[in-house]
Amino acid sequence: MSSQKSPNRTSRVLRLSPTGVVSRVNSTISRLFSKIKKKQTDGRGSILHDNGTGEDHECVVINSLPDEVLLEIFNHHRLSTFPNGPTDDMWEWHKLTHVCRRWRYLIFASPHRLDLRLLCTNGTPVRRTLDCWPAFPISIQYGGVVGRPPPALKDEDNIIAALEHPARTYKIQLALTKSLFDKLVALKQQPFPALEYFLLMSLDGGELSTLPSTILCESAPRLRNLFFDGIPFPMLPKFLLLTKDLVFLRLKNIPSAGYFSPESLVTSLSAMTQLKMLDIEFASPSSRPNRRSLPPLRRAVLSTLTQFTFRGISEYLEDLVAGIDAPALSHFDVKLFNQLIFDVPQLHQFISRVEKLRGFGRVRLDSFEKGISIILSQPAGKDTPGRLLLGIACKPLDWQVSSIAEICNQSSTLFSRVEELRLYRHFLLPARQEEIGVPEWLEFLRPFTTVSSLHVSRSLEPLVAHALEDAADAPDVGVLPALRLLYFEGSRKSAPVEKFVTARQLPISLP
After folding, report:
1. What is the pLDDT of residues 270-322, one digit of tens each?
2. Which InterPro entries match (predicted)?
3. Dist. CA 357–CA 387, nearest whole Å
4. Exposed / middle / buried, residue 308 (Cβ in 10 Å: 0-12, 13-18, 19+)
5. Nearest to 62 by CA among 16, 115, 129, 131
6. Which long-range contacts (CB under 8 A, 24 or more apart) does 12-20 make?
7. What is the pTM of this model?
8. Cβ(337)–Cβ(369) below 8 Å
9. Would you give the distance in Å from CA 89 to the centre of its chain?
């Protein structure tokens, strides 16, 4: 690297600890990446100017550093670039190998410390790439996430070529067409001893055939992250029994052909001692248990689970949560398909067994064109240990409110400390629906006996106002008995609630 001598200093190599070297040389290494085309260093020191102090500082001569310190610098750059570990665009260590022969030998000799992997993605000439580099772990990424395009037809042979090295495959992330899926199924199955991340996403809208149980030869002992989207895999519970160290299990848009029973899923989950995230989402309500099961005598304890998402019918959810405990759970999202009757006692018992899902102070209702949800959390400024979402997929607003009210009224203890209630609608209603829904709203408001503050968005003011006026005519209904503040985003004209306000002697708050 080029150097300029300071008039008050002589050129010398500073004797620093590895930490001190990393601190001084990190900015130089960052510049090196942008000027990597030089491919060599000239062995001289350089001067850095500190804009904060106005002082000049001598940099060490990089190639005079011991191997251990140089490796520390490389690793520091990797970690500062990807503090949460390697991402889809992994750090470009291969550029460093072109700087000089010493760097190349040093990097090649430290593949584990520097987390070296070969990325096979769209347009990669896989066979030539694997031949010209050492036998580092392989990351196969073609689609499956935002920013990564799906494989073209010409990429399929390259994907198969990469999968012919199962002992080196660290990551598989594929968006599947039927053509590519058929090629995968036809592959000779072998163990994947190094595989830690496995993601398959269907691009064919549920037209894929069933994934065979031998897809990984039932041997992936290091697998930590399993994510299937639209993939039919009914033998999943059997497969999970052989992948006990999973940390993230995400199954989205499970097609009917991929159905597995809640009992078999609980059995496979019970052996997982490191699972942190569980995501079970069916594509349609057709996936349902043949019969309702009795609660098991002994529940599986998922002691490390912190996030749980479910989308499906209430019968399946009931059988699933009846068989598990998750004492560390902090985020629980439930999204149910529409049904005539919601009977969810096991759901509420499951929630009551989770410490971080108790004592919420705020509830927010959001009505969308295709569904409704309530989110239970803590008000801003307070400790927020957990969050609970309960949602239902249905369209007419009166159905939405009636359905969510049915679930809420089955467990009044969920709302025993709620002080703040917010109501929002995010779509336009047909004119015929603007005057309906008073009984539904009264039923929804009934369990909120401790709410002192009600916030109503402009789009819901007429409907909620009619309900409150009816409540004023029937004080024995017991709607919002603790209410002290009523806030409308619009005006008093759009929300005529004088009778309710007068009956309760409330201050009404307007913008």
Report:
1. 999 999 999 999 999 887 777 666 777 789 999 999 999 999 999 999 999 99
2. F-box_dom
3. 7
4. buried
5. 16
6. 12/45, 12/58, 13/45, 13/60, 13/61, 13/64, 14/58, 14/60, 16/60, 18/68, 18/69, 18/72
7. 0.82
8. no
9. 19
